[in-house]
């Protein structure tokens, strides 16, 4: 129970960190920072922040690196950071934080679709647990779609108090100057790449029990990849200069929203699996919508409120189904172990009866029979 609560609380912290990332990233990009520059700085600071932990904490326990694991970490850097973040930040620049957090809830659906054919997750529609898990995912995604497509009346207007820096940005978060086709489309693609990362990261955790080291290598590879892409798209050095608010953004995004959250997510994936981790994204929606309302003066519409309630209900419905499924598997394991013990005891008694009824038999033959029977078990 304590371990499950810890995983739950860690995932809540991860979602809060992600919400802070999109708020500050939206501000600096609306203020003129290029999305590719933002994406390039993020893994650099992530590598710097996580590398000391990898060196000191896993120096003696770090397993041997194999070509297979290194290649999987490389794939994680591609799908989890390079492709994901470049596409993500461009999508964020062309939309709003609420839309971003809503579309992020497609990650469970993508993860589920990928995980089932690979055998990582079971569909199990014949069981109550499987049906609950399935419909929880559908409800969660449906709520996200409702939030994205339906606004309705304004429930809560703009807050009088807001971040002063937001006044100086060139865009209004509630305006229609963003590309509402390109933005959501890119965010959907970003969600797909993140779901792929969740699956690959689960395999890395199984083969390489050094999360700090694997995260450091992933961020280091992504740093090289993102810098190359960034300079190809934005060759002017003046675009790479950091003023105070941009510096805060890239340091926070690198240290907190990348290395810290990626490590915690990897640990939770190891404990609960990739689908469990992805189902916490609806919480990201609620937190980011609230912070956007407070800091960016974004209006909260009826669709946002209803969609948030639906996605949270879907999330907990899925978690309930996942819990029932895990409990059923534990019961099956216990019953199988009990049956094996009973069979072993019965066979031992039968062998002892045979020895009693045939005292003149050769002891060596009896010992061979006992050994053979135990081997068959």
Automatic annotation (TrEMBL):
It comes from the Eukaryota. The chain crosses the membrane at residues 7-28, 40-57, 69-90, 102-120, 132-151, 180-200, 212-233, 245-263, 275-294, 300-319. Its main location: membrane. It is found in: Membrane. Residues 357-377 are annotated as: Disordered. Belongs to the drug/metabolite transporter (DMT) superfamily. Plant drug/metabolite exporter (P-DME) (TC 2.A.7.4) family. This is WAT1-related protein. It comes from Solanum lycopersicum. The gene is LOC101257604.
């Amino acid at each position: 129970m304590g371990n499950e609560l810890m995983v739950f609380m860690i995932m809540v912290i991860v979602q809060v960190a992600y919400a802070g990332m999109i708020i500050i990233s939206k501000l600096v990009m609306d203020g003129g920072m290029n999305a590719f520059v933002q994406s390039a700085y993020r893994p650099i600071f992530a590598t710097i922040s996580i590398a000391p932990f990898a060196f000191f904490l896993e120096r003696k326990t770090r397993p041997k690196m194999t070509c297979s694991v290194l290649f999987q970490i490389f794939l994680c850097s591609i799908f989890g950071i390079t492709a994901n973040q470049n596409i993500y930040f461009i999508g964020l620049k062309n939309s709003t934080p609420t839309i971003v957090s809503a579309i992020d809830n497609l990650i469970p659906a993508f993860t589920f679709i990928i995980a089932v054919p690979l055998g990582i997750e079971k569909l199990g529609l014949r069981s109550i647990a499987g049906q609950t898990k399935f419909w929880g995912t559908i409800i969660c995604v449906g709520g996200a779609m409702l939030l994205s497509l339906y606004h309705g009346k304004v429930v809560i207007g703009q807050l009088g108090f807001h971040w002063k820096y937001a006044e100086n940005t060139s865009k209004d978060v509630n305006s229609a100057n963003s590309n509402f086709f390109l933005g959501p489309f890119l965010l959907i693609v970003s969600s797909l790449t993140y779901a792929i990362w969740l699956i690959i990261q689960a395999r890395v955790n199984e083969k390489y029990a050094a999360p700090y080291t694997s995260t450091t290598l992933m961020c280091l590879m992504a740093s090289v990849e993102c810098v190359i892409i960034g300079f190809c798209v934005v060759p002017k050095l003046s675009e790479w200069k950091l003023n105070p608010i941009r510096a805060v953004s890239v340091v926070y995004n690198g240290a907190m929203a990348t290395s810290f959250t990626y490590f915690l997510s990897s640990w939770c994936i190891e404990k609960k699996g990739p689908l469990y981790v992805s189902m916490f994204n609806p919480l990201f929606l609620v937190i980011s919508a609230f912070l956007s309302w407070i800091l960016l003066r974004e209006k909260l519409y009826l669709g946002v409120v209803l969609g948030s309630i639906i996605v949270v209900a879907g999330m907990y419905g899925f978690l309930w189904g996942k819990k029932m499924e895990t409990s059923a598997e534990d019961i099956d394991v216990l019953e199988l172990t009990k049956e094996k013990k009973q069979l072993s005891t019965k066979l031992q008694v039968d062998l002892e009866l045979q020895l009693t009824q045939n005292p003149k038999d050769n002891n060596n033959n009896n010992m061979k029979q006992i050994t053979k029977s135990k081997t068959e078990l």
